[in-house]
Amino acid sequence: MLEKFSILDLQPSQFYLSETKLQAVRAWFDPQDLTNFDPISIKQLDGEWIVVDGHSRLFVAYQEGLTHLPVVLEEEDWNWDFYRFCTEATKAKGISTIADLWTHILPQEAYETDWIGWCQTVHDQHFSKRSTMNTIDYITKLTTTPSPTGFTKEIMDYVVTETQNMGYAPIKTPKGGVLVTVKGQNDNQHRFITAHLDTLGAMVRAIKPDGRLKMDLVGGFVYNAIEGENCTIHVAKTGKTISGTMLMHQTSVHVYRDAGTAERNQANMEVRLDERVTSAEETRALGIEVGDFISFDPRTLVTENGFIKSRHLDDKVSAAIMLHLLKIYQEEGIELPYTTHFYFSNNEEIGYGGNSNIDAKVVEYLAVDMGAMGDDQQTDEYTVSICVKDGSGPYHYELRQHLVALCESKGIPYKLDIYPYYGSDASAAMRAGADVRHALLGAGIESSHSYERTHVDSVDATERLVDAYLRSGMIE
Ligand SMILES: [Zn+2]
Q1: Which of 88, 212, 327, 441 has the fewest CB within 10 Å, making it most exposed?
Q2: Is 332 a catalytic residue?
Q3: Which one of 74, 348, 446, 463 is the catalytic residue?
Q4: What is the pLDDT at residue 3?
Q5: What's the gap in Å between 178 CA and the centre of ligand 1?
Q6: Which residues surround ligand 1, an ion (CB under 5 A)?
Q7: How far is the CA of 442 from the centre of ligand 1 (A)?
């Protein structure tokens, strides 16, 4: 603490005071006794001593005739650029000492709009720390935003806002995907990179006589994978959500002999609503109708030792990586060697997410999607998986060998694999007639299309490879 700093040597960093706050200080302030006086928090910025906190106390002390006050140096790593901005704005109003605030005292309400509101706006527009999102933060944000295929507006709007805040000009395509084009050094040959943000889900197929819901699945998975999972009904009629659980009709072992053996299928599985309903009429009265989307509880968890669990790591891990790289390229002013289209697709789980919106100049197409794990698979949760062939056939040989070479030269741990029952947006693009070199890679996802898991090591390896690829030269 620096004892007794001269009051008039301090530059205020705010240009309004609240009459209410001043009254509150006057109620307890005793100029004869500073033993309980909290020191004024100050900071040296550009050679000037700035008041960080304590403008009201400073003003009252000055009014009471004091010339010096106890101060403390602010050691915390605050957003000093923001304070610089506020100080400049204060000076611009002719305020260079606390005495100048005499004509800037406002009733509480005006203080809140003209000062607090001003700070909020300036902070959000120019100094927001929003951009400190890292890949794991994006994974959490994306997996906890419901987006079954066909119901992806909310998550796509988020991507639009987020990339706009980064400084890009995203385009929402008619079918609901988001395209962010980043101009590169070479604008004649383009790259296209995609991840999908639609997930598995379900739709209300019918309302049963007992008020429960029959489901129709959206995407390729088995009923076993969702038994006992909590879910959300997105009621189209009201715009509201209703919670429930997906269960076998014959769940209670106290009543049903075949609780364990009955087939998990559309006829036997249903949604139990968290509402007091026992008839179809009562359920309909909630606004629920055939066609309402059902999203699954993602149960996103990141363990202390780095495992990431969630229902929808496929393919939100990859989308998170793309968002994070976009952020880094913008913040660090990195110019990519080729104009690159970042496409967040919304129809992959039903087979045609990224088969459109491909610029005629695109010659390389990279799908970033989950690596499949299981018997005969080399893919694991700690490396990046490069797909050599899936259900659609082999991927472009030279391009995948380019990816392998990047891993080798940069020490990125990787695995090569065939995904037997799998198609990607890259293969969908090929089927749709795109004449490009296509490749597929992604983080290793355990128990895919069920309660999935990966590890931060796999996310890291995948991000490093995607980054290395986007900054690399094209193969001939
Ligand atoms: Zn996927």
Answers
A1: 88
A2: no
A3: 348
A4: 65
A5: 17
A6: 314-315, 369
A7: 9
Q: For residue 315, how far is its CA from the centre of ligand 1 (angstroms)?
A: 5
Q: In what order do the strands lie in the sheet with 40-45?
A: 2-6, 68-73, 40-45, 48-53
SS3 26: helix
Taking the C-alpha atoms of residue 181 and residue 173, their distance in angstroms, rounded to an integer, is 13
Residue pair 34/73 in contact by the 8 Å Cβ criterion: no
392-398 contacts at long range (C-beta below 8 A, 24 or more positions apart): 392/423, 392/424, 392/427, 392/430, 392/431, 393/427, 395/426, 395/438, 395/439, 395/440, 396/437, 396/438, 396/439, 398/437, 398/475
d(CA 239, ligand 1 centre) in Å: 28
- Residue 269 DSSP one-character state: E
Output the pTM of the full model: 0.74
Residues recorded for the chain: 476
Calculate how far, in angstroms, residue 370's C-alpha sits from the geometric centre of ligand 1.
6
**Torsion sign over Cα 271, 277, 283, 288:** negative
Q: Whose structure tokens read 């739709």?
A: 203
- The residues that bridge with 419 in the sheet, in sequence order, are 390
Helix residue ranges per DSSP H, 267-384: 280-285, 313-331
Q: What is the per-residue pLDDT across 214-254, written as a single tens digit (0 to 9) for each?
A: 999 999 999 999 999 999 999 999 999 999 999 999 999 99
Distance 196 CA to ligand 1 centre (A): 7
In the numeric block, the tokens 């959300």 are attached to 232
Q: In this structure, are residues 232 and 146 in contact, taking their beta carbons and an 8 Å threshold? A: yes
